[in-house]
Design brief:
Structural class: alpha/beta
Order of helices and strands: EHHEHEHEHHEHEHHEHEH
Strand order of the largest sheet: 2-1-3-8-7-4-5-6
CATH superfamily: Ureohydrolase domain
CATH architecture: 3-Layer(aba) Sandwich
Shape: globular
CATH class: Alpha Beta
Radius of gyration: 17 Å
Largest sheet: 8 strands, parallel
Number of domains: 1
CATH topology: Arginase, Chain A
Strand content: 5-15%
């Protein structure tokens, strides 16, 4: 029996330089995402939209941190409540700082701190800390935060310290990063599947390895998809496009049916920027990601 999917919006772009992703969830709701999922045979319900007052002008990273924190605290609480209600969280962003709230909420509700596996699709490593980040943008830091390193305001969400253990985390599709974040992850032993490896071995072979990392010796696993992992030709509506990504067909095939796995806990889709989308190509991709994950 297909579980009820809770579509949880993260209407925040303050973790990025460009804030267009903040309107990603509302755009998807206006596009009737839940109704389209119902047509595909899935039961999906929108959860509450959270909006905090914020100035229209740009903020420095230090000024933006309280907003990023408030949004992630709210997201963590919504996710944890959905898990407790036996629904499957599908968090929709929004910049990728949202991973702090999504996986903080899942691990807290499951009692699975450092025992949850995570498969992370992305063009970037997102593993900077305030000590290493050139931009100090928080959407470039969530991997480090989940591993327990970053601003205390963020590492404490869902409980203090690391939420994910490095041996249960892997990143897929990587092709753009700085040396400091790369060194941070390699020193911890995090498995990184670069685009070069995907091209040589194929996405399906990579996914077999990734699932073994995330689902072996854990209490469950989740998937986070930064839409910029896909090639921008097929996913133009993203916050930080990077060329030479994986194809729509490969990405959808990789995640097909994983929501039916007995250990599957939650799905996150980040960095949808409706202002950069063309002919709903990226919103349709969001829909198709959800459908493919939960198809039998």
């Amino acid at each position: 029996m297909t579980p009820t999917l809770a579509l949880i919006p993260f209407s925040c772009g303050w973790g990025a330089k460009l804030r267009g992703c903040a309107d990603g969830p509302s755009s998807l709701k206006k596009w009737k995402l839940a109704e389209q999922l119902a047509e595909a045979g899935l039961t999906a319900e929108w959860d509450e939209f959270t909006r905090f007052d914020a100035p229209e002008k740009s903020l420095s990273p230090a000024q933006a941190l309280p907003l990023v924190t408030r949004y992630n605290v709210a997201l963590e609480q919504q996710v944890a409540a959905c898990v407790a209600a036996k629904k499957i969280p599908v968090t929709l962003g929004g910049d990728h700082s949202m991973a702090v709230g999504t996986w903080g909420g899942v691990t807290r509700a499951m009692g699975a701190r450092e025992k949850l596996g995570l498969i992370w699709f992305d063009a970037h490593l997102d593993a900077h800390t305030p000590r290493t980040s050139p931009s100090l943008a928080y959407h470039g830091m969530p991997v480090a935060v989940l591993l327990g390193d970053g601003a205390e305001e963020l590492t404490s969400i869902g409980g203090p310290g690391a939420k994910i253990a490095p041996q249960h985390l892997c990143l897929i599709g990587i092709r753009s990063f700085e040396e400091a974040e790369h060194r941070f992850l390699t020193d911890l032993g995090v498995r990184i599947f670069y685009m070069d490896e995907i091209k040589k071995r194929g996405m399906q072979a990579v996914m077999q390895d990734a699932l073994a990392i995330a689902a072996t010796g854990t209490d469950g696993f989740g998937i986070t998809v930064d839409l910029d992992g896909f090639d921008p030709y097929e996913a133009p509506g993203v916050g930080s496009p990077e060329g030479h990504g994986f194809s729509r067909a490969d990405g959808l095939a990789a995640i097909h049916g994983l929501g039916r796995h007995p250990g599957f806990a939650a799905l996150e889709i980040a960095e949808y920027n409706p202002y950069r989308d063309r002919n709903h190509a990226t919103s349709a991709l969001v829909r198709d990601i959800i459908v493919n994950v939960f198809e039998g």
